[in-house]
Amino acid sequence: MIEVQNITKHFGSFRALDDVSLAVPKGKLVALLGPSGSGKTTLLRILAGLEAPDRGKVILDGVEATEQKARDRGIGFVFQHYALFRHMTVADNIAFGLTVRKGKDRPPRAEIDRRVAALLDLVQLSGLAGRYPTQLSGGQRQRVALARALAVEPRLLLLDEPFGALDAQVRKELRRWLRRLHDELGLTGVFVTHDQEEALEVADEVVVMNKGRIEQVGSPAAIYDSPATPFVYRFLGNVNSLPCAIHDGRAEIAGLSLAIEAPNSGGEGNGIAFVRPHDVEVRPPADGLPRAVVEQLAILGPVVRADLLLPGNISLEVELTREQQNHLSLAKGSPVGLSLRRARVFAGA
Amino acid sequence: MRRDESPLIRWLLIALALGFLGLFLVLPLAAVLAQALGKGTDAYFAALTQPDAWASIRLTLLVAAIAVPVNIGFGLAASWAIAKFDFRGKSLLISLIDLPFSVSPVISGLVFVLLFGLQGWFGETLRDHNIRVLFAVPGIVLATMFVTFPFVARELIPLMEEQGREEEEAAIVLGAGGFKTFLTVTLPNVKWGLLHGVLLCNARAMGEFGAVSVVSGHIRGLTNTMPLHVEILYNEYDFVGAFAVASLLALLALLTLVAKSALEWRLRDEIAALRQS
After folding, report:
1. Would the keyword Cell membrane be found if you checked this record's keyword annotation (chain A) (predicted)?
2. A201, A233, A265 — which closes off a domain?
3. Disulfide engineering: B224 pairs with which of A39, B187, B228, B241, CB 3.0-4.6 Å?
4. Which residues of B touch A134 (CB under 8 A)?
5. Tell me, what CATH number does A74's domain have?
6. Where are chain B's structural domains?
7. Are A225 and A270 in the same domain?
């Protein structure tokens, strides 16, 4: 178990982390997700010992490690731009963590060679032991960086934007590969990302961060299905945010009447309702259903995105299948009826 | 690149560049050699083996042999500190490193007179302990060190800053200590920049005139470096002697440049690899 307690960190007058506490269970892969400047990389660097917190504690496996030096923490770190040693071959890069050990801690040369070969095999780069980093592609460098971090058998693997510098196709493959690798090795891992899709796909647990604070911690499904704050709603995936008036436990959005959801409700007055595009059901216009007009239609492969106009000039983005579109024979200008499958109202926002 | 300038302009430009080079570089070198060999090779070698000339050659090599390693140490320490760490007064340190470049060498020499001369701050103490700094080898070494200390640091600071700190951080997380990280990661990454800085530093250390002239006292056979010796011989109308020593000085400079180019050419792939990514 890896823990941080009440961590605060300033850079000059900028507050990078504000009283952050988090526990990473053994064997889990956790994503720190947030926009740039949310403090996620700072938190990662504090875990690694590359930055010292102003206040708060780092606890590794039950032992306080706040003052422990980075080199003694037994942590593997994969840097955003890999930070491979450019004057060393791939094999020497991977062996580095073992060859710098002193005296009897250092394995014999033959043992180091064997471990390097095994790691090269693990990251599928067996033929490239003698290459230099500049002779590798981005995806290959990434895997060398990972093998180098794994060589010291770290108790915690930290990855800073591990796929950020790769192109889309490679990123997708490496993402799945990392997840499989994690399952095989049973590592405890924390990675930083600003890409919500990446976090939801790869992680066991997602920590959403904003402005140096943790907004929500939960499984990918929980984070996506029930965001705890308006920020999480906006940051995770596409969402309609509609101003509404709350009265008597119901929220009124321009003719749509919603039953308000506990527990974030309470209160009267203005609020914001969040509705995901696929949580809007589009039906034929009928009595008793709120009405809207199709303003724009875009066909994105299997799905159709429609911009609807509600009374009061409010736009609502919805997503439906091609089948539904054909069935309703939707076109620009068609009147439709609406119902909401799921929505969340935050008072006072 | 477009090649649609007229051949005339092309040739004119090339001729201009070559002519300029010839006028300001090749011609003076040739003149030095011609003057030096003006009375035959016997006179040339006689001038070089003359005891005072020989003493100046040894002194110059000695001064360079002390000043250059000291400045390698200082340059590495300063650039490492500046590029890899944040601390108060960093920009002040950077400006101070540039000081010898911006101050006239004569002033640099005078500073040491003010410090170590008989009327200077430490003058009496030094006299009481019978230590000679001015008009002796220590003063010459100090003045040379002062004038040449920006070369290594100036070469390394931008290079190290460009390379960033991530590789060092990676080494530390992998369990390397500070010194080990410096030896196995930082130093190999800057070795070509370091070599370049060392060669420039060496060339200047051997060729420095102004600052050394102020502190040396011009004692023949004792405190004259090669540039000072050249001047003395020249002022005495001993042209063969002056230009013989001058040619040797020029030869040392040329050798340094050739050595640098040869190294760069032989190791161009590795240098390119270090500059990338």
Report:
1. yes
2. A233
3. B228
4. 273, 276-277
5. 3.40.50.300
6. 42-275
7. no
Beta strands A55-60; A344-347: pairing state: unpaired
pLDDT tens per residue, range B107-135: 989 999 998 888 888 888 888 888 888 89
pLDDT in tens, B239-261: 888 999 999 998 888 888 888 88
Clarify whether residues A201 and A332 are in a common domain.
no
In this complex, is the C-beta atom of B160 within 8 Å of any C-beta atom belonging to chain A?
no
CB-based burial of residue A23 (10 Å sphere; 0-12 exposed, 13-18 middle, 19+ buried)? middle
Of A44, A43, A57, which Cα lies nearest the Cα of A4? A57
d(CA A343, CA B264): 67
What CA–CA distances, in Å, run from A323 to A55, A302, A303, A342, B165? 56, 9, 9, 21, 54
Q: What is the pTM of this model?
A: 0.82
CB contacts of A149 in chain B (<8 Å) are 173-174
Complex-level ipTM: 0.84
- Taking the CA of residue B264 and the nearest CA in chain A, the distance in Å comes to 16
Say how far apart CA B187 and CA B76 lie, in whole Å: 9
Look at residues A207, A233, A259 and tell me which one is the last residue of a structural domain: A233
- C-beta atoms of B277 and A132 within 8 A: no
Pair A192, A247 in one domain: no
Question: CB contact, 8 Å: A48 with chain B?
Answer: yes
Q: Which CATH topology does B42-275 take? A: MetI-like fold (1.10.3720)
From the list B174, B188, B274, the residue facing A152 with the nearest CB is B174
A228 with A215: CB under 8 angstroms? yes
**DSSP 3-state assignment of A29?**
strand
Residues A194 and A260 both lie in one domain:
no
DSSP notation for B108-144: HHHHHHHHHSTTSTTHHHHHHTT---TTSHHHHHHHH
Asked if residue A61 lies in contact with residue A24, where contact means CB atoms within 8 angstroms, the answer is: no
Q: What CA–CA distance (Å, rounded) separates B76 from B195?
A: 12
> CA–CA separation, A269 vs A49, rounded Å?
47
